[in-house]
Amino acid sequence: MAYKFVDNYREKGARKQLVKHLEKRGIEDKNVLRAIGKVPRHFFFDETFWNQAYRDIAFPIGDGQTISQPYTVAYQSELLHVKDGDKVLEIGTGCGYQSCILLELGADLYTIERQENLYNRTIQVLPYIGYKPHFFLGDGSKGIPEHAPYDKIIVTAGAPFVPDVMLKQLKPGGLLVIPVGDENSQKMVTILRVGENNFERIDLDTFRFVPLVGDKAW
Ligand code: SAM
């Protein structure tokens, strides 16, 4: 069934307020802030909840999943340092909000989701609002080896460990951003591939993501 969308929402500057709020919380990358200011987040919500769309909160999107909190999306996007034309793999498409931000930053985006219901909805919503990544349905904990290597990989679900397969799919100089920890809290981790078998890891702030479920995950 094709989805039908109505965009008669008057957000009365709420999106600009969200950008200001994220700046105050420490997001500095002007391109990330511009992207947040551009993507219509209310499209990812049921009409009943449009008034929640520009609050800095995660929100249930069905099938036990959430649209990520804008601060988390901005934080991961800032860490990823996307350059125009970068080949980026996103693991955990969900509703596709983070995907739109990455596309606004100039990514050539490959995005994978394991839940068919979400996938089916997102492949209709994103093109409708003008965003066209390469969509995949399946277990992203193994990456997508057929399209590797990538300049950047971003994981938007909490992993119990860093899967080796993801590191192998990075180009030399490539960067992985992944939340790693237990079910309740994860550290945001960045891993830079500095050589064939040489990686630099940095552990950053604590977040709480839904679990990365799959062959190389929970
Ligand atoms: N990026 C989304 C956004 O912009 O709001 C939020 C993603 S949500 C926090 C995490 C997503 O990862 C869920 O949709 C979940 O189904 C998906 N996921 C979990 N394990 C996965 C796996 N192994 N492969 C692909 N997607 C997975």
Averaged pLDDT: 94
Tell me which ligands are bound.
Answer: S-adenosylmethionine
The dominant shape is globular
Structural class: alpha/beta
What's the arrangement of strands in the largest beta sheet? 5-4-3-6-7-8-9
Give a quick summary of the entry:
The chain is an alpha/beta fold. It is 26% helix and 28% strand. It has 6 helices and 9 strands.
Summarize the topology.
Blueprint lengths: L13 H11 L5 H9 L20 E4 L2 E3 L2 H11 L6 E5 L5 H8 L3 E6 L2 H13 L5 E4 L12 E6 L8 H5 L1 E12 L4 E10 L2 E10 L11
Parallel strand pairs: 3-4, 3-6, 4-5, 6-7
Antiparallel strand pairs: 1-2, 7-8, 8-9
The structure holds S-adenosylmethionine (SAM).
The site of S-adenosylmethionine (SAM) has 27 residues, from strand 2, helix 4 and strand 4.
Describe this structure in words.
Catalyzes the methyl esterification of L-isoaspartyl residues in peptides and proteins that result from spontaneous decomposition of normal L-aspartyl and L-asparaginyl residues. It plays a role in the repair and/or degradation of damaged proteins. It catalyses: [protein]-L-isoaspartate + S-adenosyl-L-methionine = [protein]-L-isoaspartate alpha-methyl ester + S-adenosyl-L-homocysteine. Its EC number is 2.1.1.77. This protein is of the alpha/beta class. The chain has a single domain, classed as Vaccinia Virus protein VP39 (Rossmann fold, 3-Layer(aba) Sandwich), CATH 3.40.50. It has 6 helices and 9 strands, in the order ααββαβαβαββαβββ. It has helices at 14-24, 30-38, 70-80, 97-104, 116-128, 164-168; strands spanning 59-62, 65-67, 87-91, 108-113, 134-137, 150-155, 170-181, 186-195, 198-207. The strands form 2 sheets. A 7-stranded mixed beta sheet has the order 5-4-3-6-7-8-9. Strands 1-2 form a two-stranded antiparallel ribbon. Helix 1 (14-24) packs antiparallel against helix 2 and helix 2 crosses helix 4. The two termini are 32 Å apart. The mean pLDDT is 94.
